[in-house]
Amino acid sequence: MNEINTNMVPFPKLNFLASSFSPFGICGFSKVSNAMSRKDNFWNTCSKSNQLVKIDPMEADSALIAAMLIGRGEYSVTVMRKYVDILQNKAPFQHWSRKCIKIGLCGVAPNGLDYSMLALFNTSTITNLFDYVSSHYQKLLRRKAHIHHYTEVQGFEFDHFNECQNIIATVTDHYEEIKKSKTEAIPRLESDVFC
């Protein structure tokens, strides 16, 4: 778990990860899942239909900050390296985050399958989810729906609701900042500086 935090969170407040898994299946229907190729498995983990939250990590106008691919079963380092190369070329990474892809291998496949893949993405498209949740949160707050459950708790004040809303807005702003950042030209250091 510590490795995930180290590799997937380049900035302290940008620690919201989206996950996807492939193949999705029901116990007893493994023949369908095993018919899928490993490459299809990889593409499914990158598609928005396999995300466990409603986002698209490959959305063109987003910024992918970091990614992790974990293969279980019949995967090799060479195959995973090919997937990393594909992801680096196709995904909307920031200029500084293109190399922020971690891979993991587990030789034991899930029960009934030959292989599976889990992908984790730290992406600016998570702000779509934050906006969606925030809008519903504001509706409930305006109607004062279920607020009495919280305000009756000792030490909880109504201001905590506004504070939570501000935290979500701040995190959204941080992700938007990353998305809007452009490539900065950093002049190379002269070799005589170190002499």
UniProtKB/TrEMBL annotation:
Keyword Ion transport in annotation: no
- Family according to the record: Belongs to the tubulin family.
The protein here is known as Tubulin/FtsZ 2-layer sandwich domain-containing protein
Q: Which domain of life is it from?
A: Eukaryota
Domain (Tubulin/FtsZ 2-layer sandwich): residue spans on this chain: 12-133
A Pfam family the protein falls into: Tubulin_C
The record's Gene Ontology cellular component field reads:
microtubule
One Gene Ontology molecular-function label: GTP binding
Recite the UniProt keywords alphabetically.
GTP-binding, Microtubule, Nucleotide-binding
